[in-house]
Write a structure and sequence with these properties.
Elements: H1 9-17, H2 31-45, H3 49-59, E1 60-67, E2 72-73, H4 76-87, E3 90-103, E4 106-117, E5 125-136, E6 142-149, H5 160-172
Parallel strand pairs: 1-6
Antiparallel strand pairs: 1-2, 3-4, 4-5, 5-6
Helix pairs in contact: 2-3, 3-4
Amino acid sequence: MHTQTVPDSDYKAALERSSPSLYQLPAAGSVEEATMLAGIEDLFTNYTHENLSSKTTEVYAKEVYFRDAFKQFSHPEDIRDYMLHGLEPLTAAEFIFNRVIRSGGEFYIDWTMRLDFKSTPTDTWEESIGMSHIRYNSEGKVIFHQDYWDPTDIVYRRIPIARQLISYTKGKM
């Protein structure tokens, strides 16, 4: 079973092989760093079929560790297909990058995800906050992407049995 936060062997191996000490990264605050970060920001803040189709493989390296609340992937084509599939139940999606924090060669992106589901009236946006831990290779491509966010309120409650279980559990806490 996939979980988002269990540090399994794949996660540990990905951390080891993506260690920033193995790569030459642009200096903090440099134009090169801004260009590198702009790639992932553009991918997510322009979250459309066209943009995801054309830019996902430009942002992510050929071998990448990507894990979110639902899936784990190691190739940019699989990430692209997953993201495109995620657009199917939506009228629109957007990500707002609130801040990017750099610590050595580690990047942490604090974001807000906004989703407008086809099953709800148009412009009924649902929001969730999250954080992404990102690492880059020497070419400025993402080689490690671990998302941290809670899908409970925005996704799981759309599943009738899960919604009932979540409501019951919250009532007992």
